[in-house]
Each structure stands twice: as structure tokens, then as C-alpha cells.
Amino acid sequence: MEPEAVKHIRKRLQWSEERMARELGLSYSTISRWERGLCTPSPVAQRLLGELAQSYRPKPKSLHAALLSADCINISGVVGLFSGPKDLSVNHDHYLARSRKRR
Predict the structure, then answer these.
(1) With contact defined as beta carbons under 8 Å apart, do 40 and 34 qualify?
(2) pTM value surpassing 0.85
(3) How many folded domains does the chain comprise?
(4) What single string gives the DSSP state of each residue in 34-93?
(5) Tens-level pLDDT at each residue, the chain (103 residues)
(6) Is 13 part of any domain?
(7) What is the CATH number for 19?
(8) Residue range(s) defining the domain that contains residue 28
(9) For helices 17-24 and 3-13, what crossing angle results, to 10°?
(10) C-alpha separations of 31 from 19, 39, 50 in Å
């Protein structure tokens, strides 16, 4: 397995060298040596790397990013829960007042 392939798999998983080492039960220096081409992964390690590469499914970094990338967002169940920022501040003030009484 080429050094670039190891690094490509790690980058696709969005893992650091430390995380990849931890997941594979190896040391950080082993992953670093693979990526620099100083040594090659064993046949067992190559199989594990291949399985990691095939099992990879890109996930959105956050719900916010997923929502921003959506074509449309259904908010039919959300409308009517509150009328705007004023409701939020009133509820927050009410919560703070109750929490002060408990002390």
C-alpha cells in the first residue's frame, strides 16, 4: 500500500494520526512512518485499512450544516410553538426568577 493511500484514508475519515493509531491499536509513530513511506503496513493492517476505506460514509459535520445543504426544510410542526424572540426572553426571565427563589 502506497503512503499516499494511507494518508488519503485517514483524511477521508477526518482522523488525526493519533486517532488512527488508537483505532488500529498501533502507535502514532507507526502511522507516521507509513505515511512518510519509511515502512509499509503489514498484510493484516492493509486489510483493516481497506475495510476502513470501504466502510466510510461521509457525514455532515453538524445538523446545522446538513440543514443548510438541504433543498427545503419542513417547518410545519414548528410553526406555532412560539411567536418570536419575545417569547424566548419571557420564558428565560421566568426560568431565571424561579431558579433564584430556590437558592
Answers:
(1) yes
(2) no
(3) 1
(4) HHHTSS---HHHHHHHHHHHHH-----S-HHHHHHHSS----TTTTTS--SHHHHHHHHH
(5) 899 999 999 998 889 999 999 988 999 999 999 999 999 999 999 999 988 888 876 655 566 565 566 555 555 555 444 444 444 444 555 555 665 665 5
(6) yes
(7) 1.10.260
(8) 3-55
(9) 90
(10) 10, 9, 15
